[in-house]
Amino acid sequence: MSAGSRSVAYGQNPIVEFRLRHADGSWLHFECVVRNLTQHKNIGGIVYNARDITERKQTQEELLFNATHDALTGLPNRALFLGRLQSVVDRMKRHPHQTAAVLFIDLDGFKVVNDCYGHATGDVLIKAVSNRLRACMRSDGTIARMGGDEFTVLVEDVTDPSDAIRVAERIQSSFAKPFLLEGHEVFKSISIGIALTSPEVPAEAVLQNADIAMYRAKSQGKACSELFDRAMHEQVMSRLLLEAKLRYALENEELALHYQPIVAVDTGAVQGFEALLRWQPSGLNSIPPSTFVPLAEQCGLIVPISVWVLKKACLEAASWQRRYPADPPLYVSINISSKHFSHAGFIGHVKDALVESAVDPRCITIEFTEGLAMNDVAATGQTMSQLRTLGVKMSIDDFGTGYSSLSYLRRFPVDTLKIDQSFVATMDAENYAIVRTIIGLARNLDLKVVAEGVETTKQHRLLALAGCESAQGHLFAEPMPAKSVGVFIESNRRRPSQTKQRALARSAGL
């Protein structure tokens, strides 16, 4: 009988479990019911009834293993990892000097592998990653798969943060070697977040801290490691608070559109407006778009917000056209994020906004960046064709800062190129040459040009000399709320001759 035998009560008769070694070296498990029949006149002794429960034991062990381990890699799963981590934290309460570290590991660009090779090959890569992690770790380290392409490592007996950092560096170095997938060598990097344990911090919180640090590593360019600190936690909490407020921004009417005039360079006459999103949360200072727009994209709010922008801008554009008719009519330019542009319902959203507002589609310009246009050329071209069918105009924003191919530019049915303000802000010889090249390119392709960020009379004069048609910037007018647009239009129209004379004088003054 093995030393691992045990007994339990079964009514008045105890049950003993034990194991015996088979002749072939394997172990057999038995369950034995013990009955005291010493007082029985026909028996007069102790009766043992034993049965082989080896198969049941194996099934129980298999179920327990499956409940605590990842099916694909055989590594511990989240539940088992958290249990072991909590044991380390509990031990630290008795021995505070025994520190440990959690490494949260995420595979960079895993989606690309799934998209290119399929999910079966993606599973092959995940198994290869788990094997590579096993090879990197000492026997006392616990490796777990959290799910997807996320892994964790528990490193015990850490005396200093540098110990955990060295482990992370060792793991990073192991990923310098390629993986063999479908007969191709594929290089994959990893981002690692590191968090140290503490007696005051529960296991779940330590894991969250490592996760936060991993996302910081991602934001720093991937393929690196970051050590969690308190500032990271505060930033995450601030972000979560901001995200919660953003979710109610639409229903609380905290979002608004401001409009910056786009004017003719030679006369200063207003031609249209660019719709710019603004957010003024209740009880807080105004949040800049550079902060909340990326947040909206990350938390899945960008599409409903963008739909609201489309409808609002189209309704206000229709109102101005009725009140201030012109030939050509005033237009409104609307920025579209890449996530909304690639959304399955995007064309329907544009169509709904046009129908609901009854605006002339020719007076609506959809703006998107070069990067968006080149992300998926075929899909972009198809979406643009559908927009053209609806009758709206299209503009490439921040032109010159991306990587658009001229051949694709000719294929896309765009109407306008917007010169990025970075070229306008510093109008040295090199930037001015770029500006003149963009203007010449647009003229050859029969496209309009709008220069962004014009703030000085010198910039205005140079743009006029280069033949730029339209411009926007603080020199002409700052973005204004919708209620101020009518006043601006009327003021601009009352002084057309004076505006033209000043513009010509500025151009001649170079």
Number of helices: 19
Structural class: alpha/beta
Please give the largest β-sheet. 8 strands, mixed, barrel
Specify the overall morphology: elongated
Helical residue percent band? 40-55%
Biggest sheet strand order reads 12-13-14-15-16-17-18-19
Strand fraction: 15-25%
What is the radius of gyration computed over CA atoms, rounded to a whole number of angstroms?
34 Å
How many strands appear in the DSSP assignment? 20
Mean residue pLDDT: 88
**Low-confidence runs of at least 5 consecutive residues:** 7-11, 503-510
**Distance N to C terminus:** 104 Å
Task: Describe it.
- The protein has 510 residues and is an alpha/beta fold.
- The chain is 47% helix and 24% strand.
- It is built from 19 helices and 20 strands.
- The chain has helices at residues 54-68, 78-94, 110-117, 119-136, 161-174, 203-219, 230-247, 289-298, 302-323, 338-341, 346-357, 370-375, 377-390, 406-411, 421-425, 429-444, 457-466, 482-494, 496-508; strands spanning 6-10, 13-21, 27-37, 45-52, 99-107, 142-147, 150-158, 179-181, 184-186, 190-196, 225-227, 255-264, 270-279, 331-335, 364-369, 393-399, 416-419, 448-451, 470-471, 480-481.
- Strands 12-13-14-15-16-17-18-19 form an eight-stranded mixed barrel, surrounded by four helices. The protein has a five-stranded mixed β-sheet with strand order 6-7-5-10-11, with helices on both faces. A four-stranded antiparallel β-sheet has the order 1-2-3-4, with helices on one face.
- A hairpin with a 2-residue loop joins strand 6 (142-147) and strand 7 (150-158).
- Residues 7-11 and 503-510 have low confidence and may be disordered.
